[in-house]
Every structure is written in structure tokens, then in C-alpha cells.
Amino acid sequence: MEKRLIWDLPTRLFHWLLVASIFCLYATAEWMDDAVQWHFYLGYFTLGLIIFRVIWGFVGPTYARFSHFVKGPSAVFSYIKTLGKKDSAPSTGHNALGGYAVVIMLIMIGLQAVSGLFMTDDIYLDGPYRHLVDESVLDVMNTMHHRVFDILLWVIGFHIAAIVFYAVFKKQKLVPPMIHGKKQTQASGISSSKLLLALVVALIVGFGLYYAIEIAPPAPAVEEFYY
After folding, report:
1. Is residue 223 part of a domain?
2. How many CB atoms lie within 10 A of CB 141?
């Protein structure tokens, strides 16, 4: 087997930026005082990351595409049967089970970020869409924002546990390839990270998100005060 490029640079950047964003979101919400404004900014950035990854899942290189790692139930069950085997062949990209974990995490973090658009600190800052909905919707969004994150912490814990399991039991290191992008495999690697396409997608997402947050929402009916 040869070391071949599997994870493109945009996918790797997305992964580590998402890790950093989630950590900083938790820190600004739980550990830091007077950091709500930064929490909002980080939430917008995280939403942009999720939108980028969803688009990249359709137009990115082979192993970043949903069509490559979202498999049917039979493939998932077949893979589960190999979990107890130390000598099972490593997957080139996401395995059949891990592919669904990726989708679940994208959905959960996306829900977290979207619900954050309706949050408030009850003092100075409101999310850009808070004033557009009634109290019943705000109650749903508030519950979602807090409960989903509690579940997300468990999902992240299982994700870390899976990395440790593969490293210790199966002797398959999953973290280094997500840094340098290469894996030892007999499968074909990717020829390009499609950096220009990634830049175009990122710019479209960035401008679209700026429009949706700063321009599109109508001004609130009452005067708002910001830091």
C-alpha cells in the first residue's frame, strides 16, 4: 500500500476550525463573562462552516462527498460486524458507520447555530431573527439551543472515544490523516483539493450569510442597544 492524498485541504480546515469553534462557543457561554457578542460572532462563523461543508459534500473531491460515505443499512450492518476484528481493513475515507456520525453532527451543529439566531442575553443583545417570531417559536428555539448542545457533548464524547478505540484496539490512527491528508491505501487518492472551487464556495457562503444576518432581517420595532 502507498500513502495517498485522501482528505482534501478544505475538508481538513473545516474539521479543525469546527473543533476550535465549538470549544470557543462553549468557553464564551460557560466560562467567560461579558463574551456574548463573541458567542454570537462565533455562532455565525460556525453556521457558515456547516453550510460550506454541506455544499462541499456535493461538489468537493471524492472522499468529501456524501455519495461516497453515506451508505445503505446493509453496508452499515456489515461494517458493524468488523468492529471486533483487530485486523479488519481500514476504510479509505469515512467508514459506513462514521459516515452517519458525520451527518448527525452536521445536523445537530446546524440546529444549534440556526436556533442561536433567535437567542438573547436578556440585557443588550438579540439574535438577528428574534424579533421576527412570536413567543411560542422563541420557546422552541431556546429549548433546542440548550438541549441539542447537551446531546452534542455526548456525541463529541463518543467521537473521541471512537478515535481512541481505533488507535488502541485496531491500531488505526485517524487523527494524523486529518492533519496531513494522507492514508496508506490501495485505493486511488485524490488528484487535487479543488482549492479554487473551495474559495468560491466559501465566498458565496460568507456573502450569503452576511446578507441573511446583517441586511435581510427587518429592523426591530423598538430601539436596540449593543456593546
Report:
1. no
2. 21
The pTM (predicted TM-score) of the whole model is 0.92
- What 8-state DSSP symbol labels residue 120? B
Domain of 16 in residue numbering reads as 2-215
3-state DSSP percent of the chain in helix, strand and coil, to 5: 65, 5, 30
Q: What are the DSSP E strand ranges found in 32-120?
A: none
CA distances to 75, 134, 185 from 92, rounded to whole Å, are 15, 48, 6
Distance CA 70, CA 91 (A): 13
Please name the residue ranges forming H helices in 119-194: 135-168, 177-180
Dihedral over alpha carbons 111, 30, 48, 95 (to 10 degrees): -70
**Cα-flanking dihedrals φ and ψ of residue 91, to 5°?**
-75, 145
Specify if 221 maps to a domain: no
pLDDT tens-digit profile, the chain (227 residues)? 689 999 999 999 999 999 999 999 999 998 998 888 999 999 999 999 999 999 999 999 999 999 999 999 999 999 999 999 998 888 999 999 999 999 999 999 999 999 999 998 877 788 999 989 999 999 999 999 989 999 999 999 999 999 999 999 999 999 999 999 999 998 999 999 999 999 999 999 999 999 999 888 876 655 444 44
Number of domains into which the chain is organized: 1
- Give the contacts of 225 (CB within 8 A, at least 6 positions apart): 124
